[in-house]
């Protein structure tokens, strides 16, 4: 099988970073552009399914008839998009911040699952756990779409209650009201909350987040009975909320990334490879998309050495090369150092493990790289 080709993030034309801005424009809010050509409406629900990739969905279409029927139905408009790209890296932190701010990673600065903060003396921030004392608003200062809309629309987030004050929420999706769910398995409560929020005010925007598909995929892999069962549950929940929503509400279902299963024999431990670990001062990112910093060696030489070892298994780029290639969109000068000196994105079904992140050893499903299964997510628009 030939190595996978990279999927370029479609910033400004068909990326997750274009979704909420297009929704706002479709609601008639000034200052936004409807680049996705969404239907005009006063009420929108954006339903984010963490880990729902386009390729994962259509491969298991029988287990998600409501979602798959919309994904695979003949388009009434030949130009109607059914997919978006994730940003680079294709990971929750970056994707949700792109969604929330309607900007590429190079603008908002949440450039990966875990990345160095220059102002923190080289410490690595993991935004999912927010392990550093830095303020989320300092780390990510770009106003969110929800903030920009909260004085003009009834804006609501429906998600787990414990996420209300999390660092990632405050960085990526702050703004509007937050309706916290105490039990994420209670789909009836989620449906009720979404419908009530959609009915608030003359115009409304609801962002609903569901993470269970991603959790199962990481634990068991996506080609498993457990994953298909969770996909069926997700499909049923979306069908029920669409049926319960008022007729004037546009429901949009999307994902933040797809997923690839990584066999045990395709895992390379960085510390066991002298030509990889030599001269590396910091390994961050995640197994499918590593970010490397070297305070002692030139990045070009580090990249060349990693490329020689990994060959066609990976795309290896220096920071400057990745920026020039459009991986992060335009990058603000003050944010460049957050991106690794060298970036390593896996092309096949392999992964780069490290002893500094042993908790990653138990994952089966992974993501982060630029392959089509990881980068392509559905854009399912259920019109009134």
Question: Mind explaining what this structure looks like?
Answer:
- The chain folds into two domains: 16-261 and 369-382, 3-Layer(aba) Sandwich (Alkaline Phosphatase, subunit A), CATH 3.40.720.10; 264-363, Gyrase A, domain 2, CATH 3.30.1360.180.
- The protein has 15 helices and 17 strands.
- The model has no long low-confidence stretch (mean pLDDT 97).
- Helices cover 31% and strands 20% of the residues.
- Strands 2-17-8-1-7-5-6 form a seven-stranded mixed sheet. A four-stranded antiparallel sheet has the order 11-12-14-13. Strands 3-4 form a two-stranded antiparallel ribbon.
Search tags:
7-stranded mixed sheet, globular, alpha/beta, 17 strands, Alkaline Phosphatase, subunit A, 2 domains
Give a brief rundown of this model.
InterPro entries: Alkaline_phosphatase_core_sf (IPR017850), Phosphodiest/P_Trfase (IPR002591). With 384 residues, the chain is of the alpha/beta class.
């Amino acid at each position: 099988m030939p190595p996978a080709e990279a999927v370029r993030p479609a910033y400004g034309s068909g990326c997750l970073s274009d979704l909420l801005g297009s929704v706002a424009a479709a609601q008639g809010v000034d200052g936004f552009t409807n680049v996705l050509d969404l239907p005009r409406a006063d009420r929108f629900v954006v339903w984010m399914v963490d880990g729902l990739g386009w390729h994962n969905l259509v491969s298991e279409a029988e287990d998600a008839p409501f979602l798959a029927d919309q994904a695979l139905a003949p388009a009434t408009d030949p130009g109607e998009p059914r997919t978006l790209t994730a940003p680079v890296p294709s990971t929750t932190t970056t994707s949700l911040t792109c969604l929330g701010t309607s900007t590429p990673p190079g603008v908002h600065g949440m450039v990966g699952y875990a990345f160095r903060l220059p102002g923190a003396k080289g410490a690595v921030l993991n935004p999912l756990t927010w392990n550093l004392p830095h303020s989320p608003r300092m780390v990510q200062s770009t106003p969110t779409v929800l903030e920009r809309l909260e004085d003009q629309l009834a804006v609501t987030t429906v998600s787990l209650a414990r996420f209300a004050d999390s660092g990632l929420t405050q960085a990526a999706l702050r703004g509007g009201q937050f309706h916290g769910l105490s039990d994420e398995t209670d789909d009836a409560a989620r449906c009720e909350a979404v419908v009530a929020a959609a009915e608030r005010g003359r115009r409304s925007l609801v962002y609903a987040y569901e993470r269970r598909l991603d959790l199962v995929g990481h634990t068991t892999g996506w080609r498993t009975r457990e994953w298909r069962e969770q996909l069926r549950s997700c499909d049923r929940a979306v069908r029920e909320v669409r049926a319960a929503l008022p007729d004037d509400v546009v429901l949009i279902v999307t994902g933040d990334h797809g997923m690839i299963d990584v066999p045990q024999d395709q895992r390379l431990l960085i510390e066991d490879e002298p030509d990889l670990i030599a001269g590396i001062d910091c390994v961050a990112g995640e197994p499918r998309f590593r970010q490397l910093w070297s305070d002692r060696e030139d990045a070009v030489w580090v990249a060349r050495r990693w490329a020689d070892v990994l060959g066609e298994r990976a795309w290896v780029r220096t920071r400057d090369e990745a920026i020039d290639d459009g991986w992060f969109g335009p990058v603000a000068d003050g944010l460049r150092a957050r991106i690794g000196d060298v970036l390593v994105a896996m092309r096949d079904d392999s992964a780069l493990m490290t002893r500094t992140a042993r908790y990653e050893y138990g994952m089966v499903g992974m993501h982060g790289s630029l392959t089509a299964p990881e980068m392509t997510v559905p854009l399912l628009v259920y019109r009134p």
